[in-house]
């Protein structure tokens, strides 16, 4: 189908375990640095030896006024800070007309998890009879999207997306579809998550998918995933608008695909994954040979990495084991509903700079994960097109394709 508009990325923002801006995050990713360490938000003695990827040294009072903070869960703080950065980088002037034509779509897997945990602690742990009056507005999964609209003055279509670990990728993909179809002229979109608290971490412990050392995607002896947090936000707009105002174009969104496994709540399905990749290539008008880099979902669990490897081979055929692959979760953990946004930021930067970040913490090959992994240092290479995979619990899959600005 010939869509009315091409869609480009003109702004990126990020709050991550490797830094509080997109450039800092990217430079440390390329350097192969790790944001994984022992928790500080939770007493380590309450957990079973997990490591986490926290956003470190984040001071809310540097970003919000005293009267604003009581209404903002940590997840929403991250979303707003990343959105502010992305909008500032884009240089968009939000006039009254543009405000009404700019979509705001922010994904999150859980929403205000810290608010929920704090409320339960008060009620059941401390015997309180009441919770904070703004508890419900703080914990709502749409709170990040709503607060971004209010703080940036965006009055167009706005909503939250909740699809577990695919939330941010679905959000960005839907924003892309709205801009290219003409429903919106621009979009502020991405994902945010913050759930490193006792209640949520205990839930992850019960699933027995947590690593106790670090995240080792596609590696032999990998032990599981590492919970992360943060936010990534992008500004998308019509190519002709970006060119008319002489904006710096960071990359172009060229394809989006999404599927449902309709199979199992937690076990990944090769069929659903591969169909999402194939749908993205079809949407972009690409064959497998046109993909130069894959930012994999790569959680570091035995089942997911094996299934993703198989899915890439199904969808990409002979190229499935030849295209360079890395999982940035090896450095920033699995930020759940924000993961796809952090990975989208990395994919755009990879295309822009012609460098792909490494797949860190690798111990050796797993015969069932025989991909062309980027090991050791980041790899400098021409990257015309990159894809970014998100495969979520519930069998909800989403994949984005990003092309070089031209």
Q: What would the CATH topology of the largest domain be?
A: Peroxisomal Thiolase, Chain A, domain 1
- How many domains in all? 2
Q: Low-confidence stretches at least 5 residues in length (pLDDT < 50)?
A: none
The CATH homologous superfamily of the largest domain is named Thiolase/Chalcone synthase
CATH class of the largest domain: Alpha Beta
Q: What strand line-up does the widest sheet have?
A: 4-3-5-7-1-8-15-14-9-10-12
Order of SSEs: EHEHHEHHHEHEHEEHEHEHEHHEEEEE
- Number of helices, where a helix is a run of at least 4 consecutive DSSP H or I residues: 13
Radius of gyration: 20 Å
pLDDT averaged residue by residue: 97
Which overall shape is indicated by the principal axes computed on the Cα atoms? Answer: globular
List the helices and strands and how they pair.
Blueprint: E1 7-15, H1 22-30, E2 52-53, H2 74-90, H3 96-100, E3 102-107, H4 113-125, H5 135-139, H6 143-152, E4 158-161, H7 167-181, E5 186-193, H8 198-207, E6 227-228, E7 230-238, H9 239-244, E8 251-260, H10 270-284, E9 293-295, H11 302-316, E10 324-326, H12 329-332, H13 339-353, E11 355-356, E12 372-373, E13 379-380, E14 385-392, E15 396-403
Parallel strand pairs: 2-6, 3-4, 3-5, 9-10, 9-14, 10-12
Antiparallel strand pairs: 1-7, 1-8, 5-7, 8-15, 11-13, 14-15
Helix pairs in contact: 2-6, 7-13, 10-11
Question: What does this protein structure show overall?
Answer:
With 406 residues, this protein is α/β, with parallel strands linked by helices. The chain folds into 2 domains: 7-244, Thiolase/Chalcone synthase (Peroxisomal Thiolase, Chain A, domain 1, 3-Layer(aba) Sandwich); 255-403, Peroxisomal Thiolase, Chain A, domain 1 (3-Layer(aba) Sandwich). Helices cover 34% and strands 19% of the residues. The protein is built from 13 helices and 15 strands. The strands form 3 sheets. An 11-stranded mixed β-sheet has the order 4-3-5-7-1-8-15-14-9-10-12, sandwiched between helices. Helix 2 (74-90) packs across helix 6 and helix 10 crosses helix 11 (302-316). It is globular and about 60 Å long.
């Amino acid at each position: 189908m010939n869509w009315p508009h091409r869609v480009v990325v003109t702004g990126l923002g990020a709050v991550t375990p490797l830094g509080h801006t997109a450039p800092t995050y990217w430079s440390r990713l390329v350097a192969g640095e790790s944001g994984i360490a022992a928790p500080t938000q939770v007493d380590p003695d309450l957990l079973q030896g997990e490591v986490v990827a926290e956003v470190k040294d984040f001071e809310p009072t540097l970003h919000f006024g005293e009267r604003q903070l009581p209404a903002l869960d940590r997840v929403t703080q991250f979303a707003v800070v990343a959105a502010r950065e992305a909008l500032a980088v884009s240089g968009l002037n939000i006039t009254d007309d543009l405000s009404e034509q700019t979509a705001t779509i922010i994904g999150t897997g859980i929403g205000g998890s810290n608010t929920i945990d704090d409320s339960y602690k008060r009620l059941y742990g401390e015997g309180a009879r009441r919770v904070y009056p703004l508890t419900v507005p703080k914990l709502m999964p749409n709170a990040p999207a709503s607060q971004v609209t209010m703080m940036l003055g965006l009055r167009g279509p706005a909503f939250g997306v909740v699809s577990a670990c695919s939330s941010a990728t679905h959000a960005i993909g839907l924003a892309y579809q709205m801009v290219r179809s003409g429903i919106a002229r621009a979009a502020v979109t991405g994902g945010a998550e913050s759930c490193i608290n006792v209640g949520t971490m205990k839930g992850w412990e019960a699933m027995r998918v947590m690593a106790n050392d670090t995240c080792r995607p596609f590696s032999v002896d990998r032990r599981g995933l590492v919970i992360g947090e943060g936010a990534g936000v992008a500004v998308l707009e019509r190519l002709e608008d970006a060119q008319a105002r002489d904006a710096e174009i960071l990359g172009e969104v060229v394809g989006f695909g999404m599927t449902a496994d309709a199979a199992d709540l937690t076990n990944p399905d090769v069929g659903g994954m591969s169909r999402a990749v194939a749908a993205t290539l079809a949407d972009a008008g690409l064959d497998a040979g046109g993909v130069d880099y894959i930012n994999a979902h790569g959680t570091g669990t035995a089942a997911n990495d094996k299934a993703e490897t198989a899915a890439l081979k199904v969808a990409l055929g002979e190229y499935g084991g030849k295209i360079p692959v890395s999982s940035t979760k090896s450095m920033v953990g699995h930020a759940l509903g924000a993961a796809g946004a952090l990975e989208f930021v990395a994919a755009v930067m990879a295309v822009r700079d012609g460098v792909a970040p490494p797949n860190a913490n690798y111990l050796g090959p797993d015969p069932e994960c025989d991909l062309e992994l980027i090991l050791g240092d980041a790899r400098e290479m021409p990257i015309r097109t990159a894809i970014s995979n998100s495969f979520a619990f519930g069998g909800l899959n989403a994949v984005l394709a990003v092309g070089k600005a031209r």
